[in-house]
Amino acid sequence: xxxxxAVDDExxxxxxxxxxxxxxxxxxxxVCRPDEVQKIRLLDYDLILLDVMMPGKDGFTLCExxxxxxxxxxxxxxxxxxxxxxxxxxxxxxxxxxxxxxGIGELRARIAAHLRRESRERKHAVSAGDVRFYLREKRAxxxxxxxxxxxxxxxxxxxxxxxxxxxxxxxxxxxxxFGYDGESDSSVIAEHVKNIRAKCGRAGIQPIETxxxxxxxxx
Length: 219
Known about the structure:
By secondary structure, this protein is α/β, with parallel strands linked by helices. The chain has seven helices and eleven strands. The longest helix has 17 residues, at 187-203.
């Protein structure tokens, strides 16, 4: 599920955003105090909405603080339309502006467009279906459950997940995860996949699909 963080000091706007986006199937976290964002694990979110004019810490300052902590698109919600304001926000790492007052249809469309276009090289985290991969930590999470993969199992899952939908042979997977100098052979991939499925099964998911006669892919 796509997770969105919305930060705005006006609770009425947050309620409107949360209700509208929840109906679209998004999981929305609404925050009305900008200083509370520091307590939130930003890697868990696929897109962030930031109000510009907030007391204490404005959206520009908050954007600058969090941009190095997340790869996700950041969209400003703002009544400011001056070109200098727009350039300042984009220069701080924001991806777009939605000008207040905005319609719900526009909000949904802009969010959907950014999620479709999101092609920034991920350094921090990426979601593949219901599993979220924390790339620097080499950790895979389903809901609140960390999947207990070994280093090799994680490598296989990350490779398949980052290339979701593509089919890879056991030889291709082995070369990517273990390199050409690996001390075993591609037959170990089947055993690793068996272990991965057992661990995923305990969490109630089975994201790896066998394509008979070819290899595996992440569903």
